[in-house]
Design a protein that fits this description.
- By secondary structure, the protein is an alpha+beta fold.
- The protein has 2 domains: 92 residues; 228 residues, Bira Bifunctional Protein, Domain 2 (BirA Bifunctional Protein, domain 2).
- Helices cover 41% and strands 18% of the residues.
- It contains 11 helices and 9 strands.
- The strands form 2 sheets. The chain has a 7-stranded mixed sheet, sandwiched between helices.
- Strand 6 and strand 7 form a beta hairpin.
- Helix 1 packs parallel to helix 4.
- It starts with a helix and ends in a 6-residue tail after the last helix.
- The protein binds phenylalanine.
- Phenylalanine binds next to strand 7, strand 8 and strand 9.
Length: 342
Amino acid sequence: MEKKIAEILGNFTEAAKNASDSDAVEKLRVAFLGKKGEIAELMKDLKSAPAEQKKEFGQKINLLKKDVESKLGELAAAIEKKELEALINSAESYDVTMPSGVETGSYHPITLVQRELEDIFAAMGFTIEDYDEIVDDYHCFEALNIPKHHPARDMQDTYYLDNGQLLKTHTSAAQNAIMRKYGAPLRAIFPGRCFRNEAIDACHENTFFQMEGIMIDKDISISNLIYFMKTMLSEVFQRDVKVRLRPGFFPFVEPGFELDISCQVCGGTGCPSCKNSGWLELCPCGMIHPNVLIAGGIDPEEYTGFAFGLGLTRLAMMKYGVKDIRTFNSGNLKALSQFESL
Ligand code: PHE
């Protein structure tokens, strides 16, 4: 037994000389002090030692264990110090004044336009609301006076989930919830991502952004609507933009309009972005249909209001002269990172 103890100590001392990093120290610890290590094995042998020697050997093994533990501790401390010094020395080459090489990001052009509009409308007393992208049929259609099988649904084919919910086709889907949340009088805008089953080309995407706005109060009329639209456009473009109002049909407004602006890409002469018409449908709008007010818990005898559904993606195209709508979802940083950063 004594021979064995001396042998283990010898082995340990030899192995410790070769341990040069903390991994090696840990390996040593496992090999000698671990559950199945050399000393544990020795303890097992103790059981078969003659009874009168058990005590003495037991004490010797304990001494060995303490010895190995303290030597291992010293070794670990020395190696840790060495490793730390090496780390500090290597950090000498680290120059805090060097440029980091990390490029700062830039905002997506749609984010830029959205924030600009939020500022403009906030200054005019509108609150800014958020709403779900996954909605139910009631909010997207029924509450907006679009019953099942109404032909107006054809233009808003979208993606349905197995549970009957759908990806919202327009930000109008939030109108009902916001009317119910605040009641009248009410001024709110709600930007959001919308989805439609579209054939994709330079001016159509299946995923795009709109910004809805509603204003409900006593005696709201079409002139209020026109005033807010004109103010907003002149702020965004910082100049007078030619607009035209055409009758437009949406079941949730009466009367309804299409507000077009002259194409800012070609200046109105005609290009692929405006399908060669010189005009771009930018902002369908109208006076909120009484049925929609009723669904929202607002009395149409007492209150009237207007609603608009600004094409945020379209507006970004116009403002920045982006010719192809597909650029926005392309992830092409060359194209998307060139706009002013906030
Ligand atoms: N939600 C309509 C659409 O996306 C636009 C709209 C909004 C029309 C508000 C009138 C009033 O087609």
